[in-house]
Amino acid sequence: MFIAGQVGMAADGAVPAAFAEQAELTFRNLRACLAAHQLDVDAVVKLNVFVLPGQDFQALRQIRERHFGTHRPASTTVYVPALAAPGFLLEVEAVAVKPAPAAR
Q1: 88, 22 in Cβ contact below 8 A?
Q2: How far is 44 from 7, CA to CA, in rounded Å?
Q3: Residues near 34 by Cβ (< 8 Å), separated by ≥ 6?
Q4: Top-tier CATH class for 2-96
Q5: How would you classify the pairing of strands 44-51 and 2-6?
Q6: Residue 28 — pLDDT band, cuts 50, 70, 90?
């Protein structure tokens, strides 16, 4: 499953101004997308994070570790000059693999 464009936007369209709050909401949104397909973060095999310069990379790392635990998919973090809409400070895309059903 390819998941693109996960950002820190609440269901009502609100986007927190603080980076840590946006990062937390972004990873919650990613988890919700995975859960909608009966998957968890353990299914993620590749994670790309796009971040505006000057953001708190340590906070990003801590939030990601809280959501992913000991699971460490291949990942890339890239600083970008802008994202899809003003106010977004980071965006996440992921590739997740659903396990094959057990043979009968």
Answers
A1: yes
A2: 17
A3: 1, 3, 40, 41, 43, 44, 94, 96
A4: alpha beta
A5: unpaired
A6: very high
Residue 7 burial (10 A CB sphere; 0-12, 13-18, 19+): buried
Crossing angle between the packed helical segments 57-68 and 19-35, to the nearest 10 degrees = 30
| Boundaries of every domain in the chain | 2-96
Q: How far apart are CA 6 and CA 96, in angstroms?
A: 14
* pTM confidence score: 0.91
Token pair of 93 as six digits: 């895309």
For the stretch 53-64, pLDDT in tens is 999 999 999 999
pLDDT in tens, 93-103: 999 998 777 77
